[in-house]
Write a structure and sequence with these properties.
The complex is a heterodimer of chains A (621) and B (301). Chain A has eleven helices and 36 strands. With 621 residues, chain A is of the alpha+beta class. The longest helix of chain A has 25 residues. The longest helix of chain B has 24 residues. The chains are: A alpha+beta (621), B alpha/beta (301). The interface between A and B is medium-sized, with 20 and 38 residues. Strand 2 of chain A pairs parallel with strand 8 of chain B.
């Protein structure tokens, strides 16, 4: 029972008004007398005098007004749905990395799949089901259908991804399932009660919690160090509430560089040092101890090559040249750096091309380099590499990525920034908010004919890169330099990230699980893939092979034992239960019954008044 | 608005033939002596007495000494008049029931007595008393002697409003504190107070050698309990106390008995202290009361 328009209870004031009128008419008159001494000998009033006399007309009017008030407020009752109609079900699955956790003979997604199949089996004939999965985004895996064979096939095809399950994706999945009368949500951790409450307003939501174990080890990070110079380190974390041995190995190319077994305390995170490596190359860290999630047991890193790369830094500001040189040496101590004032720099035509040229507030087209980074590109009429400058801002803020739930870039005020228009072949790395809250490209990277090109729109004078309050600007610059100096045939990315790989023809992509698919390059000669599995992706196109190595780690997702406390999970289950209880039946408004009741009461009152009139010998009521 | 009646010429003409019945036999000395027999005041010769050492030589009758060779003193009747005070109860109880206009009746009687008192050129004033917020408020007009100044009472009489508590004892205290010579005091009230308070107040007035007269006023509705029958919540005008009662024949009878009992008790108190007592129950009886009742009771002649 409930009310569709509870605000209309304001009309209930008419009841209070009626009671006031009644009490007023029944109230005892108060008379003021000269002295109560005169009434000393008067007998006391009868104690059983009623304050409210039973007046049928009054109660009939009360009944009429109450019925009308309840009708206006939209009183309804819940009743079971009428038989003969097939209900629609939405099966919503968490496809985050934690659902791939092994428990017993299967994984969590297997448990969820099994429960879903039971629901399907127990459903009456005629019920329809849809399958929706979510991790980074929500996706309808199978539209609503009553074909149970197709449905089971869609369930069997559900595969967890090596990405965290985001709350926004869950919301999106529930929104997509909103048309269904019953939503069955399968996840390994209870969602926020508010999310279930929102979904439960239109549909009945059944939450199915899967998974119970917490044994998981993960490689948090892998730093190769600098070959021949500094030691590398690997961070390993035990998410279990029990101590657990961790055997792990680190390979450089095909040779094992490091192998160790250590006992990790409950929920301990240890840092293991290795090296320094003798040479650069692809570094692969592996946890050999079996645990629940495989995706976070492997991590790739690229050890910088020991080759002395040539880097040219051009800037009209000597302090900037010095700052950038420091940053370059911090990235790779093997860099051989040449700094110069662009006004005085004379490019030699027969000189060996630089591996990287960084141009700050200048553009010298004559410089030959394998990759180029423009910082604070000049607003000259001739734009560098198709990058045009439309204006200048006194300052700009790095805009945090609204879709990224992890604490990443914070809003950070930078110095002078140039509004650049990046060509379509470049990918935006970061954006800024402009004066009119519009999105302004702040950093972008792409691959032109001459090699990788990057652009950073903000100025780095006044030691912006080295200021401790502007670490985001430094991180952005370091990442850009690392990408520009990375090997062309190896890309190391995070799972879920968009990867752009140059390709001259249709690319054959071999995924970590061995499956192969083909991808057609776009008009700029790029192939875009989005690795959702951790491991090695191989792209073959036009005789060239590119390795894309996807790393996965998410502290929340990998923490299998991180269930919300009982007091937090209880509301979720309660919300689901309430939603379930409410949506199991259909709302039946009682407007017509209440209006009929009011009319009946009025008719009875009229009849009584006519009777009174007859007794009082009155012609009119 | 009955008090304005006391200033209507037609009504005053009916009072012209009346005289205030004042005992002029009270003196400050022991025994019955006429008021005003004080040596040396006045111009009307009264008697002779033999000279005694210490007598005022100004009053020696030198002609008698010449004729009789004896020192004789001539005595005179003093010019001193009686002070008449009409003391009206102006408490809240006098304002209820409104249709009875008890206060108007009391003020009209007080003003009428003042008018009558002026017939002998007696000094007359009208006072009203009530207890307001714990302090006695006794207001009175100045003394007036001649009837030409009778209209000077009108502003005061018409300005008195009912309010406050009846505290007869406190009013008497306030009056005695003025230390006026003994005179005539006419107390006009509904006497809806404790009979001990009534008796105490009247006793102290008598003890101060005042000639006290009591006029007991009650409203017609009040004294006959002429309320419509039914269940009522009644509130005391002075104390604010509320009581519920069912007004019916039984209650009305009890109410009337109570009024009669209280009037009888006041009369008994007055009789016990040789105080003239008159009842003025009902505002419609003003003229009858003034012309017939008061002469019968000796308050006027």
């Amino acid at each position: 029972m409930g009310f569709l328009n509870p605000n209309n209870f304001i009309y209930g004031l008419s009841l209070a008004l009626l009671v006031l009128i009644y009490l007023r008419s029944r109230s005892r008159p108060t008379i003021e007398v000269s002295s109560l001494m005169l009434f000393d000998d008067a007998p006391a009033p009868v104690a059983s005098v009623r304050n409210v006399r039973i007046d049928p007309l009054f109660w009939l009017e009360m009944l009429t007004l109450a019925a009308l008030t309840f009708a206006i407020a939209g009183l309804y009752i819940m009743r079971p749905p009428s038989p003969g109609h097939g209900r629609s079900h939405a099966l919503v699955f968490d496809l985050g990395a934690a659902m791939s956790a092994r428990e017993g003979s299967g994984t969590r997604i297997d448990q969820a799949r099994q429960q879903a199949k039971q629901i399907i089996d127990q459903a009456p004939i005629g019920d329809e089901f849809s399958v929706i999965g979510y991790a980074l985004e929500a996706q309808v895996r199978h539209p609503q259908t009553a074909n149970l064979v197709d449905l089971r096939k869609a369930l069997d095809e559900l595969v967890p991804m090596a990405v965290p399950a985001r709350t926004t994706a869950l919301r999106a999945a529930l929104i997509r399932a909103r048309g269904a009368s019953v939503i069955d949500l399968f996840a390994d951790r209870p969602p926020a009660p508010a999310i279930l409450a929102d979904a439960g307003s239109t549909s009945r939501v059944n939450f199915h919690l899967v998974g119970a174990g917490d044994l998981n080890l993960a490689i948090v990070s892998l730093d190769p160090g600098i070959p021949g110079s500094t030691r590398g380190r690997v961070v390993i974390r035990n998410f279990s509430a029990r101590p657990h041995p961790a055997e792990f190995a680190i390979d450089l190319g095909d040779s094992e560089q490091f192998h160790q077994t250590m006992m990790l305390a409950p929920r301990e995170q240890v840092v293991a040092f290795f090296g320094p490596l003798k040479t650069g190359g692809l570094l692969h860290a592996r946890i050999l101890t079996p645990d629940a999630i495989d995706a976070d047991n492997s991590r790739y890193a690229l050890a910088p090559s020991g080759r002395a790369a040539q880097v040219l830094v051009l800037s009209p500001d000597a302090a900037v040249r010095d700052d950038i040189a420091r940053v370059l040496l911090a990235i790779n101590a093997n860099f051989q750096i040449v700094t110069a004032d662009p006004a005085k720099y004379v490019a030699q035509s027969d000189a060996k091309p630089f591996d990287l040229v960084i141009m700050h507030d200048c553009y010298v087209p004559a410089v030959k380099a394998a990759s180029t980074l423009f910082i604070y590109p000049p607003s000259a009429a001739k734009s560098p590499q198709g990058i045009s400058v439309n204006g200048t801002l006194a300052s700009a803020d790095i805009r945090p990525d609204a879709t990224d739930e992890s604490p990443g870039l914070e809003s950070l005020t930078l110095g002078a920034t140039r509004v650049v228009a990046v060509p379509e072949w470049m990918d935006l790395i970061a954006t800024a908010t402009g004066p009119s809250h519009s999105s302004i490209p702040l950093a972008a990277i792409g691959r032109a004919a001459g090699g990788p090109v990057g652009v950073i729109a903000f100025d780095v004078r006044d030691h912006l890169l080295l200021a401790p309050d502007h670490l985001d600007a430094l991180v952005l610059t370091v990442d850009m330099i690392k990408q520009l100096t990375a090997p062309r045939d190896i890309l190391i990315v995070s799972t879920g990230a968009d990867v752009s790989v140059p390709a001259t023809a249709t690319a054959k992509v071999t995924q970590p699980d061995g499956s192969i698919r083909t991808v057609t390059p776009d008009k700029w000669g790029r192939v875009r893939i989005r690795p959702m599995q951790a491991g090695r992706y191989t792209l073959e196109s036009g005789g060239q092979t590119t390795q894309v190595l996807a790393n996965y780690y998410d502290a929340d997702e990998s923490d299998l034992g991180a269930k919300p406390p009982p007091e937090a999970s209880a509301p979720a289950e309660k919300a689901a239960a309430e939603s379930s209880a409410q949506s199991a039946r259909q709302a039946q408004p009682l407007v017509f019954i209440l209006i009929a009741l009011a009319l009946l009461a009025l008719l009875i009152e009229s009849a009584m008044l006519i009777g009174h009139a007859g007794r009082w010998r009155m012609r009119h009521v | 608005m009955l008090e304005t009646r006391a200033f209507e010429p037609e009504f005053l003409r009916k009072l012209d033939r009346l005289v205030l019945g004042i005992k002029r036999a009270r003196t400050v000395r022991t025994g019955q002596r006429a008021l005003g027999r004080v040596q040396g005041l006045g111009i009307e010769p009264e008697n002779f007495k033999e000279y005694a050492p210490g007598d005022d030589l100004r009053f020696l009758d030198w002609n008698a000494f010449a004729r009789l060779d004896e020192l004789m003193l001539r005595t005179y009747r003093a010019d001193r008049q009686v002070e008449v005070t009409a003391l009206v109860d102006a408490s809240a109880s006098m304002g209820l029931p409104q249709r009875d206009d008890k206060l108007g009746l009391a003020l009209a009687i007080g003003a009428s007595l003042a008018y009558i008192g002026m017939a002998d050129n007696d000094a007359v004033r009208i006072g009203a008393f009530a207890m307001h917020r714990g302090s006695m408020k006794l207001e009175a007009t100045p003394f007036h002697r001649r009837r030409e100044s009778y209209l000077n009472f009108k502003p005061f009489v018409t300005s008195v409003r009912a309010g406050g508590d009846t505290r007869l004892g406190a009013a008497v205290d306030e009056l005695l504190l003025q230390r006026r010579p003994a005179g005539t005091i006419v107390v006009i009230s509904d006497f809806l107070v404790n009979e001990i308070d009534i008796e105490d107040a009247l006793k102290r007035l008598v003890a101060a050698r005042h000639d006290v007269k009591v006029i007991h006023v009650m409203g017609e509705q009040e004294s006959t309990a002429a309320y419509p029958p039914g269940l009522y919540r009644i509130r005391d005008a002075e104390t604010g106390e509320v009581r519920e009662t069912m007004l019916g024949p039984t209650t009305v009878a009890a109410l009337r008995r109570k009024v009669e009992k209280m009037a009888t008790r006041v009369r008994e108190i007055c009789t016990a202290h040789a105080i003239a007592y008159a009842q003025a129950f009902g505002a419609g009886n003003l003229e009858t009361f003034m012309e017939r009742e008061l002469p019968l009771l000796g308050i006027v002649r």
